[in-house]
Amino acid sequence: MFTSAKKQRVSSVVIEQIKGAILSGEVKPGDLLPSEKELIEQFGVSKHTLREALRTLEAMGFITIKRGAGGGPVVSEIGLEKTRESFTNFLHFKNVSVRDLSEVRKLIEPYLAKRAAENFTEADIAQLHTYQKECEELYNRGETLVGAKAEIGFHTYLAENTGNTILLVILDFVNNLLTSVKENLHPGMDFAKAVLDAHQEIIDAIEAHDSEKAYESMLKHIQEVETALDV
Predict the structure, then answer these.
(1) Do 138 and 214 lie in a common domain?
(2) Measuring CA to CA, which residue among 124, 136, 109, 123 is closest to residue 220?
(3) 201: which of 110, 169, 194, 219 is 20 to 30 A away, CA to CA?
(4) pLDDT 10s digits, 192-227
(5) pTM reported for the whole predicted model
(6) Residue 37, SS3 per DSSP
């Protein structure tokens, strides 16, 4: 399955070959990779180099190393949390601003609201009302909604409903970065009330199946959040 790594940057070649086998589908989530002895022989590397490569792959989320008898490196399915962590690590020193996040949101979320108005079922709309009710209860207890699962869920549900994993990953990532910004800025109850009002307006447009109004309401909401946070 694998070829010798002796003449190249050893650990990186091991990593790239195993990662390539996973991404190509040659090995699939749940598959157990060859034993340590077999991998050492196939790659032509030392035990230390192989273990270093496997630890890196585990940190990247490609494999899980099971301990004990019958254990070894098992191919993992990379989840949303690991994907988010990778993006966050990459952008940590990139000085991502509220305007950067808002620009992405303006491109995606009004479209999602428009699509929801066109396609949402009664059950889908009921879920939006559930998120709104949970947010209202938090607000009535004096909470600002920052980091609230229901507030984030309101937005991600629109992406989930499209069935488009790429949209979901992007929106989840943007919303989590935006939550970090809010946690640093500590917006108050006025901000929370504005969010509640905006969400209600969006829900009303979706429930009325008014796609243009849903688009405009979401765009206005994002612009208001940008103005409030871009200090």
Answers:
(1) yes
(2) 109
(3) 169
(4) 999 999 999 999 999 999 999 999 999 999 999 999
(5) 0.68
(6) helix
